[in-house]
Design brief:
EC number: 2.6.1.42
Structural class: alpha+beta
Low-confidence stretches: 7-15
Keywords: Amino-acid biosynthesis, Aminotransferase, Branched-chain amino acid biosynthesis, Pyridoxal phosphate, Transferase
Bound molecules: 4'-deoxy-4'-aminopyridoxal-5'-phosphate
CATH architecture of the largest domain: Alpha-Beta Barrel
Strand content: 25-35%
Protein name: Branched-chain-amino-acid aminotransferase
GO molecular function: branched-chain-amino-acid transaminase activity
Distance between the termini: 32 Å
Number of domains: 2
CATH topology of the largest domain: D-amino Acid Aminotransferase, Chain A, domain 2
Family: Belongs to the class-IV pyridoxal-phosphate-dependent aminotransferase family.
Oligomer: single chain
Shape: globular
CATH superfamily of the largest domain: D-amino Acid Aminotransferase, subunit A, domain 2
Length: 306
């Protein structure tokens, strides 16, 4: 039997004896309080579709888009009091899909448990909207061609937790991963996609199965194009990154985060004299104005809950 569970703020443990298939997917989206008192979600259908695409890749049954959206709306409205005031944070929503079924062997998961956690959050990086410091990882990889790097499966994050933890202990904000074949093309950061700016042209690694197709990435590409920037999705080698005018990351949690320095093989390259880059600032402003209900939603990305 499929189960859709909603949990109130913060996790609680659940045990299910049917959950014998060791696989899981999750999503991340946010509910915002707009300046005129609405509660809104940003492109939640994209999260539902990404979870369904992930489930297809992982041979798992999954809720329909409608069931996903209904459960998310229910959890947000039930936890409305936890949504911070406009500009002070958001309610982070983490839908979790676990495959289940009564077969012990390796087989598709015909049943599932779908659970949603929600928690109020502020800035992801302690820096806030200030440059972060990344380190390029050369020993660990988060994905390989033909693998599951392009879907939001739990294992992708477990695989690189060691590198991430070591980088944090050394004072870095996060880790930037390279492709595991040539070990020279950018992939992504632990929780976000990466963009490189040179002479007003914005480049970002193309989606080719090893990086997560970020919803913020896609939105920022559209916003940048509408602001008149040229955006190129391609292979981005480390050399191009290190000679960039500006580097920034995008994600639901990190929003648009400027990168102040990148350390590669022990050598640190700095960007922007410790200041937020011009392009990152422009894109951050455009995106957050939309999410806070200040800018007009011309793209139809905002779903109003009340
Ligand atoms: N890459 C990874 C590995 C992530 O975990 C995330 C966060 N979901 C992203 C990129 C950004 O995706 P989104 O913009 O959809 O949050």
């Amino acid at each position: 039997m499929n189960r859709i569970l909603s949990s109130v703020v913060f996790a609680r443990r659940i045990f299910r004896k049917e959950a014998e298939h060791p696989r899981g997917l999750f999503e991340g989206l946010k509910a915002y309080r707009t300046q005129d008192g609405n509660i809104v979600l940003f492109r939640p259908e994209e999260n539902a579709l990404r979870m369904r695409a992930g489930a297809e890749r992982m041979c798992m049954a999954a809720p329909t888009v409608e069931q996903f959206l209904e459960a998310v709306k229910e959890i947000v409205l039930a936890n409305e009091r936890w949504i911070p005031p406009t500009g002070k944070g958001s309610l982070y929503i983490r839908p979790l899909l676990m495959g289940s079924g009564s077969v012990l062997g390796i087989a598709p998961a015909p049943e599932y448990t779908f659970l949603i956690y929600a928690s109020p959050v502020g800035n992801y990086f302690k820096e806030g909207l200030a440059p972060i410091n990344l380190v390029i990882e050369t020993d660990f990889h988060r994905a390989s061609p033909g693998g599951t790097g392009g879907v939001k499966t739990i294992g992708n994050y477990a695989a690189v937790l060691k590198a991430h933890t070591a980088a944090k202990a050394q004072g870095y904000s996060d880790v930037l991963y390279l492709d595991c074949v040539h070990k020279k093309y950018l992939e992504e950061v632990s929780s976000c996609n990466v963009f490189v700016v040179k002479d007003n042209v914005i480049s970002t690694p193309a989606i080719k199965g090893t990086i997560l197709p970020g919803i913020t990435r896609k939105s920022i590409i559209d916003i940048a194009c509408s602001l008149g920037f040229e955006v190129v999705e391609q292979l981005v080698p480390v050399d191009q990154l290190l000679s960039a005018d500006e580097v920034f990351c995008t994600g639901t949690a990190v929003v648009v985060s400027p990168v102040g320095s990148i350390t590669h093989k022990g050598k640190r390259t700095s960007f922007g004299d410790g200041k937020v880059g011009r392009v990152a600032q422009q894109l951050h402003t455009a995106l957050t104005r939309l999410q806070m209900g200040i800018a007009e939603d011309n793209m139809d990305w905002i779903v109003k809950l009340k």
